[in-house]
TrEMBL record:
This is LL-diaminopimelate aminotransferase. SUPFAM superfamilies: PLP-dependent transferases. Keywords: Aminotransferase, Pyridoxal phosphate, Transferase. Its cofactor is pyridoxal 5'-phosphate. The lineage of its organism: Archaea, Candidatus Iainarchaeota, Candidatus Iainarchaeia, Candidatus Iainarchaeales, Candidatus Iainarchaeaceae. The keyword Translocase does not apply.
Amino acid sequence: MVKINTNYDKLAAGYLFPEIAKRTKAFLEANPNAEVMKLGIGNTTEPLTKSTLDGLSKGVEKLSTVEEYSGYGDEQGNTALREAIAKKYSNYKVALDSNEVFVSDGAKPDSANIQSIFSKDNIIAVQDPAYPVYVDTNVIAGRTGESKDGQYEGLVYMSCTEENCFFPSPPKEKVDLIYLCSPNNPTGAVATKEQLKAFVDYARENKAIIIFDSAYSEFITDESLPRSIYEIEGAKECAIEINSFSKSAGFTGVRLGWTIVPKALVTEDSDAGKINALWNRRQTTFFNGASNIVQEGGLAVLSEQGQAENKEVINYYMDNAKIIKEGLEAIGVKCFGGVNAPYIWMKTPNNLSSWDFFDKLLNECHVVGTPGSGFGPAGEGYFRLSAFGHRENILKAVEEIKSKLKVEQ
Ligand code: PL4
């Protein structure tokens, strides 16, 4: 008799973002004339830049001739793109070999799949709140017990609160795999070099591995803040880094990302090179490579001109963040993030629960956001607004909030 993976039954709720889409759809069905402004899912809205489009077109063009046509490529990614990604790290004074770079179809699949190369016995630590993929995939893999009071048994939750400026210290106990995200989704907090160093020191002492999701690194403008964990000495021995073209180049629907698995990584039971070989084996077995057209687009994004053009789009989103933050603060809402990160993390007014505030904002202002509790128990009482959006939509949403949201001071 075939048996299902009953770990799925442990998942406390549906995946967060489809749940938001479902509730928004229900509201629109009940209020067909309402104009809803979506600041919920972090989804890019601005068109691809000229050089990106030229790159993608070149990818298509190449498929039109016998000489340049390509079919399956290397599962790890095209050499030119792997080299360009490795070269990008030299901007942070980090030297990487191109065979430490694995091109993928995005940071979500990589951050979901990476746990599969580690033993089921590993103890997992996550920031709370965090991008839900880290927790849910470890639940599905059987590394947790049941969910009780919003926390899965066996997981170590590193609370991110106002008191620690939404970035935790390393755990007191010994853990094996640590998920960190900076700039953070959902809080918008960005780790300093000192804060990352504390984790790198912890990981080296405890032979733990950090999975560092830097999907929003391009939103950092403060030069003193690290864009890659490898800016911290010793991180290549203990950290895997995952990044994406989604938010930095508008590839949310195009799909392209990468993971760095340094050769120097070591664990308690493996020597340098082994984790890199395992991820290589995993990818070559389960993945058939990113689209050759898209990889050509990725190369164009990483060109000097591509980087300059995409910086302008990032600045546009960050101007949105400023508008949202200032608008909310003007009506007395306490806000965090929104600087060096495209998310505004707000305290719900009048101590409303995150989902109650979701309903209130949707009903009173026709604005969709993301309930903080969907990112973990410490997110309860908070709410995330995304700065990805057309300017006119953002302005309208902020005006609606300022004029219609009933906040008791
Ligand atoms: C909705 C920290 C967004 N359906 O596009 P990818 O796969 O390269 O990157 C996804 C990703 C990876 N790491 C972090 C992220 O925040 C995201 C995207 N998060 C959000 O609103 O939190 C989009 C979510 C999408 C999803 O499930 O990822």
